[in-house]
Amino acid sequence: MEKTDFVRLWVAEGFILKEEGVEMEDTSENCLQTLVGRSLIQDAGNERYTLHDFVHDFALYMREKEYFIGDTKKTREAEGINMP
User: Fold this and answer.
1) Which residues, including other chains, have CB under 8 Å from residue 1's CB and lie 6 or more apart?
2) Mean pLDDT for the chain?
3) d(Cα 82, Cα 14) in Å, to the nearest integer?
4) Which residues make Cβ contacts (< 8 Å) with residue 13, sequence separation at least 6?
5) In the 8-state DSSP scheme, what is residue 51?
6) How far apart are CA 73 and CA 6, in angstroms?
7) Half-sphere exposure of residue 61, counting CA atoms within 13 Å on the CB side?
């Protein structure tokens, strides 16, 4: 995903709070860099970013635990994810 897409999405979803004298886009970019620094999001180059594989797999696992969305066991098998 492109950096500008992350920034716009977070602002649109209300994840970024307005601070006096600071642009919301700047705050979003700082958050993105923090997530990259913590290895939760990976810099794929050319202003593009991706979730770390472990974070992606964990999100899929939690999705299955929280919500029933189709046959997630088949989805995991198709994506090569081995989780209980």
Assistant:
1) 48, 49, 50
2) 82
3) 34
4) none
5) E
6) 29
7) 11
